Amino acid sequence: MVPPLRGPAAPDPIALTQALIRCPSVTPADGGALAVLEAALAPLGFRCERMRFEAPGTAPIDNLYARIGSGGPHLCFAGHTDVVPPGDETRWRFPPFEGRVAEGRVWGRGACDMKSAVAAFAAAAGRFLAAGGPEFGGSISLLVTGDEEAEAINGTVKMLQALAARGEAIDACIVGEPSSSEAVGDTIKIGRRGSLTGRLTVRGVQGHVAYPHKADNPLPRLVRMLAALGPGPEIDGGSAHFDPSTLAITTIDVGNPAANVIPAEGRAVFNIRFNDTWTADSLGAWIRERFDAAGGDYALELRSGADSFLTAPGELTGRVAGAVERVTGRRPAFSTSGGTSDARFVKDYAPVVELGLVNATIHKTDENVPVEEIETLTRIYQAVLEDSFPEKG
Length: 393
What we know:
The protein has 393 residues and is α+β, with helices and mostly antiparallel strands. 28% of the residues lie in helices and 24% in strands. Helix 1 (13-21) runs antiparallel to helix 2 (33-41).
């Protein structure tokens, strides 16, 4: 016998995904996405608060913090409703902001990254509350930004700072980024590599190629300096939970149109995705040591996108993995691969893992996700909620 509902009906995750996709929320535009989400959460009993931040030289960003409950434990879902631009819309099978359901899939920009996950968690929270009522022995919240795909300045990081300043603590967090590889829930991200970008300028003296001894060609030094970072993409042997750190040279620029002129300078840009054997500072010192050994006049600008972090396998990872296994029958792998996400901000406030859809079509033309995968993710999130608040009324 199905027990009677004890609260308002939960939103349908597919319909909510479609409604969110129909909002053209290309960063920094909100496009109405947060209002759609707020309209789904408020009837469930969530207290919805808009948090708007701005900074000099950046666009103002609207964010949404929605919470039900006041005590602990406090489980937070973090996500974003902003999306990358769709590109040439004539190349899309269906209009990118239509939210079309066809062939068992939801199509549109943000379907995979990550409006479906936001909708799935809202629906999961609704189902959990409908079954057990609002007295479940803790708090559930959604921390949703409109500033993840671009600068990530006026979003998650400032929301977390504001919550901490007023004494709101988060005990555990799930970020809904598309973490899965081949099937929903097959991979949980328990950390991320750090990111360090270097901009190298090697200076010399311009001259005629027929008189190289009267010039100082910076390009051989530029090549030697880049080679000093290693012969291949891997710069270390990895660690217990991380693959080897990798180096990618992304551009080498001289800007010299003349074949008979030695240039005055050469420039290169590189990025290192590094594991937990490094910090941005220690990696910067390692780079400068090798560049100094090559000698010559150079300038190096280093910009850290994030340090690496790890949520060590334990209570949170086990709880989320157990929920996945109960719903799907598969035990997820723990991974620290991929780029950066807003989990890099959350980790300073609470243990955090990333669990979301299969990342097959993120940022692509014809981005889409199977309807059944949205439903599976909703059931997983609901299972996590049930395991997080086992004493619900």
